[in-house]
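Troubleshooting entry. Yesterday's outputs looked truncated, so today I'm pasting the complete records for two proteins to confirm everything comes through intact. If either block looks cut off, that's the bug. Protein one:
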Amino acid sequence: MYHRPVLLEESLDGLSIQEGGTYIDLTYGGGGHSAGILERLGKGRLIAFDQDPEAEDQALKDKRLLFIRGNFRYAKNYLRFHGIKTIDGALADLGVSSHQFDVAERGFSFRYESEMDMRMNQDSEVKAADILKNYSEGELRDLFRRYGEVKNASRLASVICSSRQIQKLDTTTGFLEAIVECIPEKNRQKYLARVFQALRIEVNQEMESLKEMMEGVSGYMRKGSRFVVITYHSLEDRIVKNYFRSGNMDGVLKKDFYGNVESPFKPVNRNVILPGAEELEQNPRARSAKLRIAEKTD
């Protein structure tokens, strides 16, 4: 494994794996969660998804595992293609793997000199550099505000649009030099993390993919099966929370004639599960992780 799995035992316990069942790991990554599922699965079946070719290269050799290289937003289509009728549980760890952050040429981190890439799927056409080059000032402002909650999003967008008229913004170094006047002296790391997060989300269409995935996968879950999701920022956590609570992405509760909430899920954990002190000491990147678990009710 080139990525330390976050909240491993907690997510496996939450999945409540039944020997002989059919489960899906929607974010294979380094294979840590999949390996844990297989240990508990017995003679069951595991379908794992990942659009990163490096994840496919690392895939475990196990006859119970079917690895599918593809975006999890199309999970329902892949399940249909492979003749899967129902599943007994699904797990998704929505974080970028440590390996992806640490490989400079992938462009996920502002700590390294690299191309402004950020594509999870290397076959995709749009890179972060393309967004910086082609988006209007308004579009840039909106994506930094929406996906990064960047406080000076308007100023940042204006500086980018001015800078790209005289220099290319296709490398991390060039981009950081161009926006230096926007970066606060205090909390520099946090600010840049938000900026890069916003670009990564836009490049990979992460919010749209998450919504499509959750709606598609839930249609394959049998009554009593578990949906386990680990989130890393408030935007995706809000989507997961709303869907588990109400069955829709907006969190609007629908009630029957008697006032009972109508939802295909019921949350298993009332409060989010967070990494413990020991895990945080071993893996500081897990500090923003939040685990939510829900059970299918119909």
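Protein two, checking that the full record survives here as well:
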Amino acid sequence: MTGTSSNLYHLTIGQASELLRTQQLSPVELVRAFLDRIKATDDQLHSYLLVLEDQALADARVAEAEIQRGEYKGPMHGIPFALKDLYDTAGVRTTSGSRVDIDRIPTEDATTTARLKAAGGILLGKLAMHEFALGGPDFTTPFEPARNPWNTAHVTGGSSSGSGSAVAAGQCMGALGSCTGGSIRGPASLCGIVGLKATYGRVSRAGVVTLSWSQDHCGPMTWTVEDTAYMLQAIAGYDSKDPTTSRSPVPDYSLSLREDIRGVKIGVPRHFFFSNEPGVNQEAVSIVDRQLGVLEELGAELVEVTIPSLEYVRPANVVIMLTEAYAYHEPNLKSRPQEFGEMVRARFRIGGMLSASDYIQAQRTRKLVKREVAQTLEHVDLLVSPTMTQPAAAFEGYDSTSTVRGPSFTAPYNLTGLPAISVPCGFTEAGLPVGMQLAGKPFDEPGVIRAAYTYEQHARWFDRRPPI
């Protein structure tokens, strides 16, 4: 089996899977291309905390033999992927980006890790992240912060920082991120890739280090919507190890990969997502606003909607997140505080100062938001907005409080648990990516994927690659 492209690392999962299935491409050759790409670029990007070169090549040889025997497992077979370093990997260090867990070696895989391997995926390594999924680009942690491949002077967004950077730079074909307030969709938007947070309960969190039990989600980050559908297919479904997972049947997400949103009603909460509040970058918002016309051209019906409680989302999300995070990390915060990075330690301590009353009031707010959003989705099929309030910030002068101040465009869907995807929709004058967010009803990942795929195939922002 021989390759057909000198830049194999720019293939999508969809393209590579067909070449692998028909034996026009070897999994070994594909993995080597990505390992070479990591070696050539990671001194600039710092996407990886650990590269599993020998194991990846061994697994690639196994995949090659399986395919040659006619035992092809599906679109993820032979596909090189990587994991945010809070996904447990048996026998492989899993640090959560922290000195606290610098020597932690799990004895078994996270459910999602195991499912990707069972689908034939090949693990390249563990990716950089904001410490314990709540820190920031913090130089007081043991690891260099990941950098944005569109401009390495800029951040990637977080907390799935290495996942965003690695996928955008062609260092892996797909990655898993985790998302509590926007940590999948945020880096996806800022790095110009696709990121999907599925419905709460659609993907197991067993073996994934906790930040906030009631808001954590796991999901794929890829170059295209098609690739996201394939990764989601591999990891979705009930898991007895995670009692929050749903027994609802998992549909065939590949059936959603069709260009058709004619007659789909898409709600636009303009009052919140397209405002001129402080902290909202008007250039980025305007780019998304212009793309709403493209959705109309493609047959969607846009309906302006009002959801008053959205203004309370940020404080409710932060209070719940910080209190639950403090509860999880309290023993180490008391016994080993010096081993946490400065950013995350300060945030966890805020969680320790919040009261039971604060937590209960935030949960009451959450119920109000869920009720109002559900009522809105009785009249429209999807909601659309910018993914982020800002394009990627520069490292120089970075404001570590920016992620907990002002509105959050991603947190509404962590608070409600609804499926939401970020898809690239343009670039700023400075050449930084901007993402558009589409959210849907519970377990309507097919509708979200179809709308994102329709837009993506028309707009074709995926044809533009980072300069690195």
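Both blocks look complete. Sanity check on protein two: The radius of gyration is 21 Å.
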